[in-house]
Structures are given as C-alpha cells and as structure tokens.
Amino acid sequence: MKLVLLGTSGYHPNDRRHTACLMLPELGVVFDAGSAMYRVNDYLCTDTLDVYLSHAHLDHVMGLTFIFGILAGTSLETVTVHGEPEKLEALRSHLFSELLFPVDPPLKMCPLEPRITLADGGVLTHFPLRHPGGSVGYRIDWPDRSMAYVTDTVAAPDVDYIERIRGVDLLIHECFFDDTEPEQAELTGHSCITPVVQVAKAAEVGRLVLVHINPALADDSALPLAAAKKIFPKTEIGTDGLVLEF
Asked: Membrane-spanning residues where (predicted)?
C-alpha cells in the first residue's frame, strides 16, 4: 500500500510545502483537502474519490474549491466528502456560499459513519481529538497492516487517543511546534515534537512521520529530530511528494 504526502504544512503554504492533504491512490482515498489538493490529479487511478476531513478549518478544506480543475480531463465519476455533520454544514454555508463560490461543486457530502469498509476490505474508523472547534483522527486496519492519521490536536504522553492508534504500522501525526512553545501549542490546539514522539512510543507504533509543520520555520533543521529519535527512533519529517510504502 502506498500513501502519498501531497501537503505537509500547517496553517498556510510556503515555498516548500502546501497544506494538509494525504492520498491512498490505489483506493481513491484522500485525507484532508488543503492547498495541495490540486496534486490529486497526478495520482488518480480510480473512478471515485473519497475525501475524509479531520475538521473544517480553511487550511484543511480550501482544496475542495479546486474540484472543477481536478475533474477536468479525468474519468472520475463521483467525489464524496466525508466529515462530521456540523463541519459539512459549515462548508455548505460558508466555503460554498454564493458570494464566495457561486457555482455548486460537483461533489456529495456524507456524514461520517462509525465504521467504513473500503474498496479493498480495509476498515476505516475515526475518533475525537482536542482542537478548537473539534477534530477527528482516522485509523485504517487491513488484515496485514494498519495506519493512522492524527492532526490538529495537542499531543501528550497520556492522551486519550493513544489506545485508538495502538500498534499501527504507520502513524502520520501533526507536529507544528518544536519544544519551545508549549503554551502556544495548548492555546492553538497543536502539538510540540517531544509529546508527539512520546505518543508514538506509548502507542507502540511501527513508524512515525511528522506533518502539519509550521510554515514559519526556516527549514526542517529547526525541529530537534535527533533528540526526538532518542525517544522514538523511527521518526521522520514528512515532505511534500514523499511516498510511503507500508
């Protein structure tokens, strides 16, 4: 199975990264629709596309307005956006307000179900995360592998969602801050690097990839990766275009 990191920035894009968007091309599954959503075209190999939203903040949904461009020249038959009902209603009322986006996009919106069976038999579940306005994390289990996507939340060594991601082969987790701004992380509902790797260790995951990186950082060396690896050795920083096989 391949997971493509289309966008790995948080808050806004910069010259190195676009905002949150991950894709499982073989399944036509996308997690979040940030500014990197236009890159979906490069990996499409299905006639359906299912977009699962963590929440409705603009850096995670702005790419839904690119849908006409994504559909152009493809064989896509349906695009379905899955999210919590109140988040979908916010999209209808605000993002796709006539004054902001005057033509209704050709997509369906479906409330998240507790358990979804994907085309290849994988089982997708979701769980609540602490973030202003609320967010959800996702986990997919196949008979021989598993992954989880956790973004826009405050990591802590004893956080509730550890049990929901326990033992996954691949954990994609946000890491907006280094360890110098814990108060700002708490205020904004984001994570510092040391608590993230502590979560990965406590949950006994196989591999940790950090995303939702602060776009204000000059480069990846601003994150103390060497120190983080002392806690959880299989930690890496995700970059746009990175293809992960698991």
From this structure: none
Is 220:14 a contact under the CB 8 Å cutoff?
A: no
CATH number at residue 61: 3.60.15.10
Helices (H) and strands (E) in the chain, counts: 7, 14
Asked if 79 and 49 count as a contact pair (C-beta separation under 8 A), the reply is yes
Split into its structural domains, the chain has a count of 1
153, two tokens: 């939340």
Print the domain residue range for 211: 2-245
Q: What is the mean pLDDT of residues 108-114?
A: 98
The CA distance from 203 to 242, in Å, is: 24
Q: Is 198 helix (H, G, I), strand (E, B) or coil?
A: helix
Grade residue 23 by pLDDT with cuts at 50, 70 and 90: very high
Task: Give the residue among 34, 41, 37 at the shortest CA–CA distance from 55.
Answer: 34
The dihedrals phi and psi of 117, each to the nearest 5 degrees, come to -95, 120
